[in-house]
């Protein structure tokens, strides 16, 4: 299973209730960008000035600890939005990196766009509020899983959330997201295979 690629304008109309007339008002505020695999959109210590909507490709956000080890916080594929909301809202240096796992086409969403969309569309304002609450819900669930769930439970939740990621991200990245070693991930997958579990 892979995600279906849709344009940002389609997303605004189908998900956020933006009309054709409102889309014309927003058109000048929509910035598109194509980047290559490995390109860095945000570095630790920088102020995050945009959220990124994925029309095509794959991004990840992560931290690097004092020992140089990466800890992946989030993946974002088609129709996902990724950013450091805290850095944007509080205008503070980010703790995260965001880079491209695949060649990607994305939309840069800044605060001016959000303000204008909220001003002209009640539907978008409600959608944006719900999206923020949904983001918080996912973060709370992720913290709970990292603190109390087994490696197998984390893995099963991961493939529900990212059904095509096993085909797109290297195993070491998936292990990093799960907070386990690649060796532990291999053991989990072998154990599930013994029980005839099919992840996709």
Write a structural description:
- By secondary structure, this protein is of the alpha+beta class.
- The chain has one domain (about 10-150): Jelly Rolls, CATH 2.60.120.10.
- The protein contains eight helices and eight strands; from the N terminus they run H-H-E-E-E-E-E-E-H-E-E-H-H-H-H-H.
- The chain has helices at about 10-15, 20-25, 85-90, 110-120, 120-150, 150-160, 170-180, 180-195, and strands at about 30-35, 40, 50-55, 60-65, 70-75, 80, 95-100, 105-110.
- The strands form two sheets. A four-stranded antiparallel β-sheet has the order 1-8-3-6. The chain has a four-stranded antiparallel β-sheet with strand order 2-7-4-5.
- A hairpin with a 5-residue loop joins strand 4 and strand 5.
- Helix 4 (about 110-120) packs across helix 5.
- The longest helix is centred in the last third of the chain and has 27 residues, at about 120-150.
- The radius of gyration is 18 Å and the shape is globular.
- It comes from Flavobacterium amnicola.
- This is Crp/Fnr family transcriptional regulator.
- It holds the Pfam family cNMP_binding.
């Amino acid at each position: 299973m892979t995600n279906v690629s849709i344009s940002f304008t389609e997303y605004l109309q189908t998900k956020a209730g933006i009309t054709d007339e409102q889309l014309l008002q927003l058109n000048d505020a929509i910035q598109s960008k194509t980047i290559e695999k490995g390109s860095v959109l945000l570095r630790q210590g920088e102020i995050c000035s945009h959220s990124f909507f994925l029309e095509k490709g794959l991004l990840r956000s992560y931290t690097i600890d004092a020992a140089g080890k990466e800890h992946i916080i989030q993946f974002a594929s088609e129709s996902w939005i990724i950013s450091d909301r805290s850095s944007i809202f509080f205008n503070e240096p980010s703790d995260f990196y965001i880079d491209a796992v695949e060649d990607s086409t994305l939309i840069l969403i800044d605060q001016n766009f959000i303000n204008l969309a909220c001003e002209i569309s009640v539907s978008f304002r409600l959608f944006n509020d719900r999206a923020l609450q949904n983001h918080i819900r996912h973060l709370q669930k992720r913290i709970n899983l990292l603190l109390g769930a087994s490696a197998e439970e984390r893995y099963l939740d991961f493939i529900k959330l990212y059904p095509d990621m096993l085909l797109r991200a290297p195993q070491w990245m998936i292990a990093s997201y799960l907070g386990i070693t690649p060796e532990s991930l291999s053991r989990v997958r072998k154990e599930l295979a013994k029980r005839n579990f099919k992840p996709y």
